[in-house]
User: Fold these one by one.
Assistant:
Number 1:
Amino acid sequence: MNNPAEILEQSYKLAQKAKAKSFVAADEFWEKIEFLCRCNTNKAPIRLLMSCLLAKLHDPAVDIRKPYTEIGGKGTFSGRHYDELYIEAFVHKHKLPCNPTTAYLTPAFRNIDRILKPDLEMVGRPKEAYTYTLEIIDAVHKNKERADNVLNEIVRYLIVVKDENEQRMGQLIAGLKQTNDFLPLSSEEIIILIAQHLQCKNASRLPVLIVAAAYITASDKIGELPLPLHAHTAADKQTGSVGDVEITLKNDEAIVTCYEMKDKPVSRNDIVVALQKLAKKKIKIDNYIFITTGPIDKDVADYAKSLYEPTGVEFAILDCIGFMRHYLHFFHRLRNSFLNIYQELVLAEPSSSVTQPLKEAFLALRRTAESDR
């Protein structure tokens, strides 16, 4: 048996050499693999599939349909082990357009105790992603396609998608190069630009990046910095974090301000949960701020205000655009730096947090805004 990491590297070398030549003969498999590799809204199936194929190549005795030890019987294996130990390092090393974290903790692939057959009902979107994944696994199990060819084809197509993405991004970024006499967008123009970005699909991560960019930009002025951001899909219990964005004083690790983002109206229960979280972690902060893209209920806002005296923590609810407008006018001379840092954060996010179309949308929107002046 070869080392799993070596199997992956060999696959990468073969995929690079193949370029436009497919490793699978049947068009139906090529099309299904293409769909999975190009699926921007759900990258979990491709990682699960890669982990199953790798396990089969590493140990031919395993049953590729049984990547959960809970299934029992002969041929079971831990797909999560292969995913976290080998696939994760592989996709990070080669910057392949996949989820940065394991597929086995996503809702559809968590705690399965049944064999992965085509008739297994899986809940998730798009439905085709799960259907195709199960069909490909079944085809390999029935020897209709070889595991190495399918893995090579997946890696080949991920490289194709990666190269296409980089080429488009390079073209878009090149169109944004500013000259010395360039007049930066005004604060209000930046607000309009980012508001348009917030209206795009799958934009729930963006308010986090807006707040983080605001603090990074003004850190020298205010003496405060955001802690490194956690993964978008990671729960607070997993990360040990208090909020989505945590602010500390410079040269001090103690958290002084927490931001929690909501893409819906903040409820009284949201505030109660925040109070419980602070009490459980025994963290003393100065203020806890909810940033929402939804309307603000006056009664809930009043309840938040009322907590300062009994808790010593100031709770507030701010709308995302209002926060940004006040910030940009207050730090007017930093507005272009803020926009550039926001862009850097957006482009640096993994595709599971900010999809490739959402990244490209921002660059296109910015190019339009700057070319219209």
Number 2:
Amino acid sequence: MKEPRQDAEEPLHDRALLLHGQKRNKVLTLKEVQRYGRDSFSDPDYIRLYGMTPPQWYARGVRLLGRTAVECTRDPLADCIGRDVATVAESLPTGTQCLVVDPFAGSCNTLYWILRHVRLSRGIAFEFDSKVYELTRRNIGVLDRTIDLMHGDYESMLDPHHLPRTDAMIIFVAPPWGTALDEAEGLDLRRTEPPITEIIARVGQTYPDRQVLFVIQVYEKVNAGSLTELHAKLDWSLLKIYDLNVAGRNHGILLGTKGWTP
């Protein structure tokens, strides 16, 4: 009698299994990464990171937890974000150095792509979770961009007194969405963990004399009330949605500034 294929005995590798199920805190094998891509998106190479396909980055020693595979920003989107951030940053005075900050590092892939596109930039990231921190610290060691990854909370560790006053800041704001995303009402920027509206306000208070560019990751549909509240905290803003997925399920960014206008 023919033995059943092992794949047929394995659970569906979808968002629920990797983000909330038994694979959440497990380091995925290459087979599991590709199975997630195949089962969920009909593409075994769906999790493209750092300019590489899964077989390429896995061969270089990059490893991901199940939840990071779900939550990371993949190359196609991260590349688009990096290009648009660079376009806005070009409006800064010639020769301006940019400190790019990722308060919720995860894989650091979006930060990596921003650094690839923004001239005269350097990166710093913060990750509170010990498991994610250790894996990402090793992962970014194989990249062609230097990222200073720190273990801890960004609010207590990003000291404004240690930053050159002439540097502009680019802050990628992508905290966990949690229950903030409602398919009918859209993403409520006041209900992320922590709320995006609070992050913007705190940064403005901490760096009142800085030229700051916020890069806020959003969903195709954003709660109107929260968007209005956020616009009021910025000197200039621009919403961009990237047509990379099926209609209604695309991601984008809200670009916004404090202390200057492009």
